[in-house]
Amino acid sequence: MFTSHVPFKPLSMFCRSLSTMLHSGVPLVKAFPEAGQRLGDVRFRRTIQDVTRALKRGTDISTACEEHGKYFPELFVDLVRVAEQTAELAYDWCRNR
């Protein structure tokens, strides 16, 4: 549920950057890759690029992240899925700042 091949710090930094951009009104398909570019982990950046391509095809964020389960813990995917269903995605990513 909590395991990931990405250490907690890069995932946390990604979420914080993404939160800031979403809260500022940056569209998700632009915010996602931009937040990923700030990471030092090359494999995670590639995963973010794959997820971004899926988002551009219309895939839900949770589904796109779930396809890369070794990088996104199950709990992360579940939280994103709930946020999508309640239309509170930007708020959920912002509230833990």
Largest sheet: none
Q: Which geometry do the CA atoms define?
A: globular
Q: How many beta strands in the DSSP annotation?
A: 0
Q: Any low-confidence stretches, pLDDT <50, length ≥5? A: none
- Overall mean pLDDT stands at 82
| Assembly annotation | single chain
Helix-strand pattern, N to C?
HHHHHH
Helix-residue proportion = 55-70%
Structural class: mainly alpha
Kindly provide the radius of gyration, computed on alpha-carbon positions and rounded to a whole number of angstroms. 12 Å
- Alpha carbon gap, first and last residue: 22 Å
The count of helical stretches stands at: 6
* Percent of sequence in beta strands: under 5%
Characteristic key phrases:
single chain, about 100 residues, 6 helices, about 70% helix
Summarize the structure.
This protein is an all-alpha fold and 97 residues long.
